[in-house]
Known about the structure:
Blueprint (H helix, E strand, L loop, with lengths): L9 H22 L7 H16 L3 E4 L2 E3 L4 H8 L1 H18 L8 H26 L4 H30 L6 H33 L15 E4 L2 E4 L14 H16 L11 H9 L26 H27 L17
Antiparallel strand pairs: 1-2, 3-4
Helix pairs in contact: 1-4, 1-5, 2-3, 2-4, 2-8, 2-10, 3-4, 3-5, 3-6, 3-7, 4-5, 4-10, 5-6, 6-7, 7-9, 8-10
Amino acid sequence: MHVPDGFINAPVSLATGVVAAGAVAVSLRGARRELDERTAPLAGLVAAFIFAVQMLNFPVAAGTSGHLLGGALAAILVGPYTGVLCVSVVLLMQGILFADGGLTALGVNITIMAVVTTVVAYAVFRGLVKLLPKKRRSITVSAFIAAVFSVPAAAAAFTFVYAIGGTTDVPIGQVLTAMVGVHVLIGIGEAAITALTVGAVIAVRPDLVYGARGLTAPLKLRVNGELVDAPAAEPAPVAARSPRKVLLAGLAASLVLAGFVSFYASASPDGLEKVAADKGFDSKVEDHAAADSPLADYGIEGIMSSRLSGGLAGVIGVGVTLVAGTGVFWAVRKRRTTETSPSSVPENV
Length: 349
């Protein structure tokens, strides 16, 4: 759903740029309450993982594909404020280095793909976890449903922006119907990826999942025929709970997805591209300012093999996004004392 240059006029692009800048500023402040020395590197990895998975377009209908937006995944794993920053870092790297998403439309893309998806997804997620039993399965189910809602919400948000500042005169009702319709299907793919990823992390390290904090249910023991709560175990030392294994596994998965699996991604246009072509407003697309970048279109200039070119570009993208994201999150993290343990973090579900 990367909006290119030319779809939205200059005044509305500028206005959404202001909205996006304000949202990023608020998120930088809010992320201090979500990040610490353990979770800041995880947030950088989440950004890199989103970059990698966004390279994997999957078919959703005849001649149409979709890809992960990532707002729901980021919000649930590392928190809503940090989630906005994760997707924003990805969009910035894609726009500057890979000519994916217009530079003048960066504010539009951050507003739609980072802010709207994260806010909608986390609101739905929080509502569901309050209603469902406090079990790991509930977190995964809530993540799935939240992700489903977040994608058509972003499609509706684009239609709203286009209704105000679109550069062509097209029937907005038809655009809304087409955008929401195809993105409901894309949302199912987004939900599957989100639920699988959240479920995988919860299975090995539930303490690292922001949306699962406070989920711990007491262990039950049968005493004289009755179930009673077992005595609470002493919290594991922080050093023993290092997220290093999770980080290394996540990085390896990101590199494999971007460097190898991405070659098999669908070549069909994504939902926005398909709707734009069908409704005729793709004629207003302008040349990207970074079209001459050596990494434009996710390939390396001068390498003839498309497999090697795309794979190396993906690996570079993962690396750059990881470094940029981790740098930002490490800078804004809240510094905690050595006595603070994960068990002292307030419950959020």
